[in-house]
Amino acid sequence: MSKILLIEDDEVMSTIVKRILQKAEYQVDHVRNGKEAFEILEHTGYGYDLIITDIMMPYANGFEILSKVRNIPDGRQLPVILLSNAGMDDMIQEGLKLGADDFLKKPVLPAELLMRIRRLLNKEVS
Amino acid sequence: MNFSLLDFLESIFFEFRYAPLIIQVAILFVFVAISLTLVAYFSILRRRFRGFRRDKNVARLNELIDELLIDNVLSQDPESVETPGQTAETAAQAFHLPQFSKRRGRQVLIDRLLNYRNNVRGAMGDEIRTLYLLLELDKDSFKKLKSRKWNRKVRALNELSNMEIGVADVIILPLTNSRNRELRAAARHAYIKLSKNEPFKFFDLATEPLLLWDQVELFRIITTTNHIAIPNFAQWITYSNNKSVISFCLKLVVHYHQLKAIPAVLKLLDTKDHLLRAEAINCLGKMKIADAEDKLAYIYNNQPLNCQIEILKALGRIGSGKHTEFLKQEFQLSTDFELRKHAAKSLTNSEPPGSELITELLETSSAENKLILKHCMNPLIKF
Amino acid sequence: MQRIWEIAGNIFESTVFIYGSVLLVSYAALAICSLIAVRRWVMSEKYQGGDVLLTSPLAPGISVIAPAYNEGLTIIYNVRSLLTLKYVRYEIIVVNDGSTDNSMEQLIREFSLVPVDFAYNAKIQTRPVKKIYKSTDPVYSKLTIIDKVNGKSKADAVNAGINAAAYDHFVCTDVDCILDENTIIELIKPVMKEKNKRVIAIGATLRIANSNVFDQGVMVGVRPPAQLLPRFQEVEYIRAFVLGKMGWTLLNCVPNVSGGLGLFDKEIAIRCGGYDHTSFGEDMELMTRMCRYALDNKIPYAIRYIPKTLCWTEVPSTVKVFGRQRTRWARGLAQLMHAHFSMFLKPKYGKMGLVVFPYNFFFELLAPIIEFAGIVYYIAMVAMGLINWPTAIVLLVFVYTYSIMITTLAILYDQITFRYYNSWRDVALLCLTPFLEFFLYHPLIVFFSLRGYYFFLTGKKSGWGNMQRRGFQVAPNRPA
Question: Does the record bear Magnesium in its keywords (chain A) (predicted)?
Answer without folding.
Answer: no
